Each structure stands twice: as structure tokens, then as C-alpha cells.
Amino acid sequence: MSRIPTPAYPLTVYFDASCAICSAEMGSLKARDTAGRLRMVDCSPATFSGGPAPREALMAAIHVSDAEGRLRVGVPAIRICRTAVGLSSGSFLLDLPVVAPLADRAYALLARNRYRIPRWLATRLAGRVAPSCDDNCRI
User: Fold this and answer.
1) Cα(130)–Cα(76) distance, rounded to whole angstroms?
2) Are 137 and 18 in contact (CB under 8 A)?
């Protein structure tokens, strides 16, 4: 197994703020970010054109770029954000040969169906109050 380099902070996190789960989770991470390691970028506006990948890719999965331009997508992106704010990344468990591909598949399934998840469940999953539909959500 290759060793993943330590990230250079800050991390720029590209996420879909129109998704209740995504917004709640990013809000929770930002609230814990006492060291200022995370910069959140909402890529949901139709006019968004920045970032390390086309908007469609950024909307399909979380993308994180470190200060040296190294990019992580999906589960590795979530893990690096959690580590940056002092939370367990689940690294040991997620690195197990059987678990890693399952985590990637579960993330892809959740990402594809995130707008179908009821707001009350999204709030419970993220552990924080999700934005209201007055905040331009597409659910």
C-alpha cells in the first residue's frame, strides 16, 4: 500500500451546498475547524466555473484540493477533512481490503441519491440542522 502524503493546509473543499446532507456535514466540519484548515467552496450555483474539475464532477462528489494542489475525491476527501479538524477519519477501517471498495461504492450510491433522502434523515445523518428549503435547496 502506498503512503498518502500529509496534506498541505489549507484544504479547499468543493461541495454541493444545495444538498442538505452535504451542507450539514460541511457546516459541522467548519464549526470544528478551530485551526482554519478548511476553505469551503459552494459549487452548486449553475454559474460556478472554478475548481479543479468541471462543475458536473464537483457536483457528483466532494473534491478537496490541498495547498500544493493535490486532489482527493469522495471517501478520501471526506477522510482528509475529518482529520484536518481533529475527528477520526476511520482510516484503519476504511483501508481494510474488503471495506475500502465497499465504502467507495456506498459513497457513490449516497451521492447519486442524496436529493431523495428526507430532510429529517439528512439532519440525523449529518448530526446537524440542515438548511431550510428557503435556502434554495433542490429537494
Assistant:
1) 23
2) yes
